[in-house]
Amino acid sequence: MIVATEIAVDVVMPQMGVSISEGTVTKWLKREGEQIEADEPLLEISTDKVDTEVPSPASGTLVQIFVQEGETVDVGTKLGQIGGSAGAAPAPAPEAAPAPAPTPPPVSVPAQAPVPEPVAEAPAPAPQPVAEPSGNGKFVSPVVARIASEHGIDPNQIPGTGRGGRVTKQDILAVVESGASPTATAPSAPQAEAPAAPPQAPRPQPQAAAAQTGEQVEPVSAMRRGIAEHMRRSLDTAAHVTSAIEVDMSKIVAARAALKKEFQSAYGVNPTYLAFVARAATDTLKDYPYVNGELRGDSIVTRNYVNLGIAVELADGKGLIVPVIRNAEGLNLLGVARGIADIASRARDKKLLPDDVQGGTFTITNPGGYGTFHGTPVINQPQSAILGTYALVKRPWVVTDEDGNDAIAIKPIMNITLTYDHRLVDGAYAGRFLRDLRERLENWEGDGG
Amino acid sequence: MAELTYLQAISDALRTEMRRDKRVFLIGEDVGVYGGAFKVSLGFQEEFGPWRVIDAPLAETAIIGACTGASMMGLRPVAEMQFADFVSCAWDQLVTVAAKQRWRVGTPVPIVVRLPSGGGFSGGPFHSQNPESSFAHVPGLKCVCPATPEDAKGLLISAIEDPSPVLYFEHKHLYRRIKGEVPEERYTVPIGKARTHRLGKDISVITWGAMVYTADEAAQQLENDGVSVEVVDLRSVMPWDKAAVLDSVRKTSKVLVLHEDTRTGGFGAEIAATIAEEAFEDLDAPVKRIAAPDTPVPFSPPLEKAFIPQVEDVVAGLRDLAGY
Question: N or C: which end of chain A has fewer CB within 10 A?
């Protein structure tokens, strides 16, 4: 509507406020046949509330004026026409199309005043309680009329057992069932179908989803319904992007071997690879607040704490739950390992409290236990990112010594993915997060990277 | 399974949810120390403490207002109106604030308002009403009216889970008269799904609440006349299970809509209108309504009996339809 065009664009009386229903054309600023640019003042109008200029909704020729100066018309009434072939329009403007207007001109919207009309109720006529014979036959109820027409039967020929001899649904169904339909007056084709018609199912009904042969049907559990809704909502909400990085876990493998016995004998806790990654990720989040942040309405929320969600699978595909380790930024490796063990076991034993699954700011999921090396997890709303850790695999790896010579070594490599909401987290930002996380893991010392 | 009264099933649902989810709390007049006017929350304050079983002043506006605010802050309040009749004092908070919040700003308002409703015990005009249609008319509110102990528990748990304000009409006449098997574990009954209380093929009765039992007794009498009556227990009036009602109507072609609330503008009018609109070509008789007359509920026992639909009234209505 803002480009010079041959297409006719209407100029209408704009809605100058909710309560305004009409306006008066006070002055046309262009004459018929004149050129006008989009947004250039075209005419002046006067309403009960304001007097104003109306900008042109398009560039082109003012082909025709329908409402003359001094006339008052309803909102939405066509005042004139820009472009099109209605009049003897000269050639379209030769110059380039003007820049788009910053705001759409109000005149182009033929808004209507949303004034609902209160409807006065007319007094109802006295009800007719008894079915009266009507027309040339007996009263026929809607369902009897429908069955009669479907089977080509004249209901007036059937002896009725209802009130006043009325033909009931049962009466006509009995005739249909008998297959005789001897009383049909119209010798039309549908008659032949009568014997085959099922007596009690005059119209096909939609069936509830029934199991086909070989299928088993089980009800959807509340948890499954919740997961389904949550997953769908996340994909409908966030702009999911996944980036992956390969991490040489040599130092972690060594650190874990050194700590394992001590952790287990002294604390009864297993220092899992997941615990190392969680510890390193929590540290890395300090430098990447958006990854630990949230897009909340018109605001971006960041935090000085990390509530770390850990995705836990319940037995046999029965569901997934994401309990939260609160203030993970204050925990050392032992604390993180212990936290993961605690929430995972309570999740499997159904001993989580409502607070345990709320308030997460970042989530880690660990589908690598079965050997998968890559995935694209779904973000746990309203968070901004989810970290995926995958199988630790020994792989041939190019290493460079101090002299700059390349050699192939066998290294324990883990793929780690970050799936992030691109609305808040940019790709390069996510890439730097993964790079720093890798650095921490590859240079692990003591309690952290 | 245990055999519980309707009232015990309500208590069981509340206890189950309060043990499971510490966001759930009760508030109402005398719900704490006294255990509720009908003893639904007897012993709750001892178990859950005075901050989760709150005795409120006689101010329904304040109760619903507090619940609405608490729900916006993440809690799951369950308010008790001592009698459903008193909810009129809270109309503004319910209708203007709670019902519209989700559309205005998108925040859920997961409150439940328990409404001991219904007559049959000479409670008179202020302690006997069934105001469900008034609230069913307000977009944003849900209204459930369980008839059995099993539904009483399952629907109350669904109501507490639901993100919208739910008005839970519990019929006082059923409290201790109706017993039934109730699963001990936690379960939900979906809001908006009807239940076929009795299967039949000649006439459908669409009803809910205490009238389910009135309809069932009448249906038994019709059985002796050789007329088979189906009783559909709506369980929720908003949202209501239109599909189940229309399915039943398409089967029988004759319908009686029955409710204890007064007739004009009662929820039966909505059901009858929908049947006329959507199942016209399946009807073999006019849609019939049986409801209370358009007056306040009388105190006098004989007058109250004349006011609330009785089994004989329903039998007469069914015979009329059967003979049509």
Answer: N
